[in-house]
Amino acid sequence: MSCSLGSEDSLDLIKQESQNSKLDPWVANPPLLQKLVSSSPALFRFQSTQDSPLFKLKDISGKVFELPRGGCVAITSAGPIQFGIPPETIKDSLNLGFEIPNYYVIPKSRWDKMFHMSVAEFEFPAYFNFFVKKKKITLICTKEAKKAIRVIFRETLLGPKTFEFFDQEFFPGYKGKPDIVKELAHFSKNPFNHNLPLTVSSLLDFIIFDENGFCFLLPHLNKFLGLAYLPNEVTIRKEQKIFTVLEKDVEIAQVRDRIRIRVDENLEDYKDQLRYGLFMNPAIEMDEKKLEIYKEKYKPIQFDPPTFGVTILGSGHGFDPKGNTSGYIVWINGRGVMVDPPPFSTHLLKKMGVPSIMIEWIIITHCHADHDAGTFQKILESTKVEVITTKTIMGSFIRKYAAVVDMNEKDLAQLFKFRPVVIGAPLKFNSATFNFFYSLHAIPCIGFSVSYKNKSMFFSADTFYDPTAFFS
């Protein structure tokens, strides 16, 4: 079999071969896949880690591959195992046309301190596997990581346990206050069996490294053409800085226990970002000549914000393989209000030439990863940015990110200013008037209208839009 490397036909060929063999596309033809990947980086936008200057790994099997946004995948008889979970990671697999993994190894450091983003963003891999494939994902981690992940997912899947501030969030006499407990209860049923509740355990399984640093992926049955197929047992050994993958006690790969976020497709640009950072951190020792070249290379274009308008950072959703996850800047008198900062938002602003100092406020509509993943990055980048949301949503955000970054909740809350929203009371700043409302969503979520002089905009936020089901 032969193919023309670097063409769309190459990708179609390996997909067709996987369909003909009834195998997972990751393992249908590993030699062909490796050849395609290494020979056509423009098409695949990732490369084998065998000779990778970023990873420098021991890839005995030739089945370990970098992913465009960071992390890598090891191909095993138990299926693909992904190491690290950067934001939007499922878009990498969707773009490549491959099966989204069921197994994910959580690195020791779950937070990328260079770019201030999570490298254990399991939320959308869990949603995709559960709601689309009707499967759980298995997270391979330590006991401490499991405890933090359950706290995080409790907030993002089901919302807060209590609503102690909810009644205080409405202006006296406001009509239309939702029954938040009843609404969330509607979404907290297992969609495949309404007699069962939806829980964290509905979507997540865990395999914990033992006291010796070992974990074992139990063999599972796959049925191909009506025949039972039993793959070999796979073992992962966690050492100080390395994960070693073994099949039947034979070492097939080593993966570094450190995941780097990748923000640029160009490798040289990425290495510059790694050294000098998105935030030009003065604590990092810099080569002055190289720094001047870097500054010139990334010299921002002149950005002239509107008096009243919107800049779209992304218009896609968490499952959209082609589009950036939604996020917006509402401009008022030349100052920006960032709404639901998407992942990599700081990088997007740099590419668009928007000075960070122009963004003075952030609105968090809710705490799903496709709406808050870039928020903490923006908070850490700026000097005391003001975050606008309700007390209920802010409580979820604080609990979630305290667990994400392993930080005390009180200390985390000191990193930004909080302006609480009161539903039914206009919120005025910078000569504009905002009116907020709760939408109907799986967790507490707010939308808003904003008016400036004789113009206005309306932002629905995520909401349940199914008229038939809504009125039934």
Termini separation:
56 Å
The backbone outline, from C-alpha atoms, is globular
Poorly predicted ranges: 1-11, 17-57, 219-231, 280-284
Strand content: 15-25%
Rounded mean pLDDT score = 80
Any overview of this molecule?
This protein is of the alpha/beta class and 472 residues long. The protein has three domains: 8-142 and 209-256, no CATH class; 268-299, no CATH class; 300-470, Metallo-beta-lactamase, Chain A (4-Layer Sandwich), CATH 3.60.15.10. Helix content is 29%, strand content 24%. A six-stranded mixed β-sheet has the order 1-2-3-4-7-8. It is globular, with a radius of gyration of 23 Å. 39% of the residues are buried. Residues 1-11, 17-57, 219-231 and 280-284 have low confidence and may be disordered.
How are the SSEs placed, and which strands pair?
Elements: H1 8-21, H2 30-39, H3 41-44, E1 64-66, E2 72-76, E3 79-83, H4 89-96, E4 103-105, E5 111-112, E6 117-118, H5 123-132, E7 137-141, H6 143-158, H7 180-187, H8 200-203, E8 204-208, E9 214-217, E10 222-224, E11 227-229, E12 234-238, E13 242-247, E14 250-256, H9 267-276, H10 288-297, E15 308-314, E16 327-332, E17 335-339, H11 345-352, E18 359-363, H12 369-372, H13 375-381, E19 386-389, H14 391-405, H15 409-413, E20 417-420, E21 427-429, E22 432-438, E23 446-452, E24 455-459, H16 467-470
Parallel strand pairs: 3-4, 4-7, 7-8, 17-18, 18-19, 19-20
Antiparallel strand pairs: 1-2, 2-3, 5-6, 9-12, 10-11, 12-13, 13-14, 15-16, 16-17, 21-22, 22-23, 23-24
